[in-house]
Amino acid sequence: MGSLGAAALLLVSGALAACRGGESETGEGEVKTDVGVTAEPCPGATDSSKGCIYLGIISDLTEGPFRALAVPITDAQKAFWKRVNTDGGIGGYEVDVTKYVRDNKYNPQTHNQVYQEIKPSVLGLAQTLGSPTTAAIISDLKASSVVAAPASWTSAWAFEDVIIESGANYCIESMNALDYAKEVYNPKSVMAVHLAGDYGEDAAAGAKLAAQALGMTFAAVKTDSGADKQAGAIQAILTAKPDVVIVTTGPADAAAIIGQTVARGFGGRFIGTSPTWNPALLQSASAPALLSRYEQTAPWNAWGTDSPGHKAMREALGSATPNDGYTSGWVWSYPMKAALSKAVEDGDLTRAGLLAAAKSLTSVDYEGMLPSGAGNYAAGPNEGAVRVTAIYKADRAAPTGVGQVRDLFTGPTAKAYTLDGPCYEKL
Fold it and tell me: What confidence tens digit (pLDDT) does each residue in 97-109 have?
C-alpha cells in the first residue's frame, strides 16, 4: 500500500472512531466514550466547540392509538434538550434527540426493527414509548447496556436497571385510584377494563390488589385497541353494573366505552389510567358522559401547574396548544439528564458508564414536578418506588381538558404495598 492509501485508511479509521465516539476532551479532563458520542458538534449545535451525545427516540408518531400523546411527548423532549444545550450542555457535550427519531406505530415488531436501525449510532434512548413495545427490546437493552427513558409506567421497569422510569407505575396508580374512590364514593364493586400486555394488565392487577385490600368485589375485562372493538367491554359493564370502572386503554377506546355505557343507562363511575386521556375527547360525542362520570389519575400534575419545571416547560414550548403529552415528555427527560451529568462527572460516558451512573442515582431534580427524593434508582424497586398520584376530572375550562380534584397523594393501600415483582404477574 502506498502512502496515499495509508493516509486514506487513517482518515477512514478516524471517521469511524468519530462515529463511534473515542476519547473526547472536556473542560474537566478526559471522558471515556464509546457508542453514540462524538468529538464533532451536534447538527445545529448551540456551541460548536462541544462534542455531541446522540440519544434515540422511538415513539408512536403516525397511526398507533397513542399518537395524540406521543407527538407532544416527543416535541417536549426536543424542547427539553434544546434548553439543556442552551444552558451549557452536559460537560463538554451537547445532546441531540432529533437525528435518530423513529416511529413504532405502537407495534412491538416495528419498535424492535427501528431500534436495531438506530442502535449503532446512539448512546441511549431519550424515549421508548409503550410497555409492550419496550418489552420487545428489553433483552437487547440489557445485553448492550443501553439506558432508556420509558414513555410508560409498567411496574416491570422498577426491576430493570437500564430503564430510568419516572412517577408511580400503573399498579400503584390504580391502588391510589381505588383509595380515592373508597373515600369519596365508597364503592362495593370494581371492574378493570384493560388492554392486553404490561400496560393494561399492570393497572388491572393494581386494581385487583386494592379491591382485595379494601373489601371490594373485582372483575377484569380484557379488550382490544380500537373504538369499534369495545362491544364486549361495553356489554360486560352493562351486565355486571360495577360501582367503579378502572379504564386502561387508548383515548378513543375509553370514549367509546364511557359514552356508550352511559347512553345505555350505566350509573357507575369511571377512573381512567393516565394514558387514556386526550383533550380532543371533549369534542367527541362522548363529552357529556365524560364530563359527568369520568375522572383521571395522573403520575404528576398537569400543564398549568405552578412549579419551576412546569414554568420552564411552558416557556420552552411557547405557543404550543396545552397537552399533558408535553408534561410527560418533559418529566421523563430529567433522569437521563441526571444520569448523563453523573457519567460525565465520573469520566465515563460509555454505555457501561452511563448505566453505572443511572444505577447510582439517589435522587433526580425534577424541578418540583415530582416530590423530593423521586428518582432514587439506587434504593431498589420497592424502596425507590414513587407512589404519588393526582386526581383530575374532565373540565372544559382547564388547559388540557382536566381540572384537578386532588393534588399528588399516596393512599394507604399504595403506601403499604410491597413491590416485590411486576404487578401484572399477580392478575
Answer: 999 999 999 999 9
Say how far residue 100 (Cα) sits from the centre of its chain: 18
Q: What DSSP character marks residue 53?
A: E
Spatial contact of 312 and 367, defined as CB atoms under 8 Å apart: yes
Q: Record the cell numbers describing residue 176, joined without a space.
A: 391510589
**SS3 at position 218:** strand
| Closest to 48 (Cα-Cα) out of 38, 57, 40, 56 | 40
Distance CA(278)–CA(271), nearest Å, equals 14
Widest CA span in the chain: 86
- Listed residue (310, 280, 236, 341) closest to 69, CA to CA: 280
Task: State the Cα–Cα distance between residues 277 and 275, nearest whole angstrom.
Answer: 5
Contact 204, 246 (CB under 8 A): yes
Q: Which residues contact 260 (CB under 8 A, 6 or more apart)?
A: 230, 234, 286
d(CA 221, CA 234): 10
Taking the C-alpha atoms of residue 409 and residue 389, their distance in angstroms, rounded to an integer, is: 5
Query: What is the identity of the amino acid at 243?
Result: D
Give the global pTM. Answer: 0.91
pLDDT in tens, 15-71: 333 343 444 443 446 899 999 999 999 999 999 999 999 999 999 999 999 999 999
DSSP of 372-418, one letter per residue? TT---GGG-HHHH----EEEEEE-TTSTTSEEEEEEEE--HHHHH--
Phi, psi for 176 (deg, rounded to 5): -65, -35
CA–chain centroid gap for 51, Å, is 28
Q: H or E element: which one contains 262? A: helix 251-263
- Alpha carbon separation from 20 to 8, 132, 192, 344 (Å, rounded): 18, 30, 47, 17
Residue type, 214: L
DSSP 32: E
- The length of the chain in residues reads 427
Residues 6 or more apart in contact with residue 21 via CB below 8 angstroms: 33, 34, 35, 36, 37, 38, 349, 350
State the Cα–Cα distance between residues 321 and 329, nearest whole angstrom: 15
Segment 291-303, tens digit of pLDDT: 999 999 999 999 9
